[in-house]
C-alpha cells in the first residue's frame, strides 16, 4: 500500500507539475498574443500615419504646382499685354506687293539697328609711344646684326627620306 500511495502521490505531483507547466505555457502564449496584438496595432497606426503624411505631402506639392502654374500664366499674360504696346522694329527693305508698298526680306541690305547705345564710344587713353627712331647725324641707318640661325634649315627638312618619289607630285614648277 505504501508503494501504491507513493505511486499515486508521485503521479499526482507529476500531474500537478504538468498542470502548472501547462498553465505557465498558456500564460506565456497569452502574453505573447497580447504583445503581438499590441505590435500589430502599433504597426497599423504607423502605416496610417505614414499614408496620411504622404497624402498631405502630395496635396501640398499639387497646391504648390498649381500656384506656380497660375503665377506663370499670369506673368505670361502680363508680358503679352506689354508686348502688344512695344514698338515694332522698322523694316529696312521695301517693295511692292499687290500694288502696295510693303517691307520684304532682302539679304543684301542691312536691317535697321534694334538697339543704339546712348553712350558714345570713347577710346581708351594711352600715352604716345616714345620716339626711338632718331636718325644718325650722318643720315645712314645702322645695320642690325643678322642672325644666321634664321636661315638654317629645319631638322624636319634634313631628315626627310629621299625614297618618297612621287610621279607627277608637283615636283616641277611651270
From TrEMBL:
Coiled-coil domain: residues covered: 2-121
Q: Annotated region Disordered: where?
A: 1-74, 123-174
The source's superkingdom equals Eukaryota
InterPro entries, alphabetically? CCDC34 (IPR045323), CCDC34/181 (IPR025259)
> Pfam families annotated for this entry?
CCDC34
Protein's recorded name:
Coiled-coil domain-containing protein
What species is this protein from? Engystomops pustulosus
Amino acid at each position: 500500500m505504501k508503494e501504491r500511495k507513493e505511486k499515486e502521490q508521485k503521479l499526482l505531483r507529476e500531474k500537478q507539475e504538468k498542470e502548472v507547466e501547462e498553465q505557465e505555457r498558456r500564460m506565456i502564449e497569452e502574453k505573447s498574443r497580447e504583445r503581438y496584438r499590441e505590435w500589430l496595432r502599433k504597426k497599423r497606426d504607423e502605416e496610417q500615419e505614414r499614408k496620411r503624411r504622404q497624402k498631405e505631402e502630395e496635396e501640398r506639392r499639387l497646391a504648390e504646382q498649381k500656384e506656380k502654374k497660375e503665377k506663370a500664366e499670369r506673368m505670361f499674360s502680363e508680358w503679352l499685354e506689354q508686348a502688344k504696346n512695344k514698338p515694332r522694329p522698322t523694316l529696312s527693305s521695301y517693295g511692292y506687293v499687290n500694288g502696295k508698298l510693303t517691307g520684304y526680306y532682302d539679304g543684301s541690305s542691312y536691317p535697321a539697328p534694334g538697339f543704339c547705345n546712348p553712350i558714345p564710344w570713347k577710346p581708351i587713353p594711352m600715352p604716345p609711344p616714345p620716339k626711338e627712331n632718331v636718325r644718325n647725324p650722318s643720315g645712314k641707318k645702322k645695320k642690325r646684326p643678322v642672325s644666321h640661325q634664321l636661315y638654317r634649315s629645319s631638322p624636319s627638312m634634313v631628315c626627310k627620306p629621299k625614297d618618297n618619289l612621287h610621279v607627277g607630285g608637283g615636283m616641277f614648277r611651270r
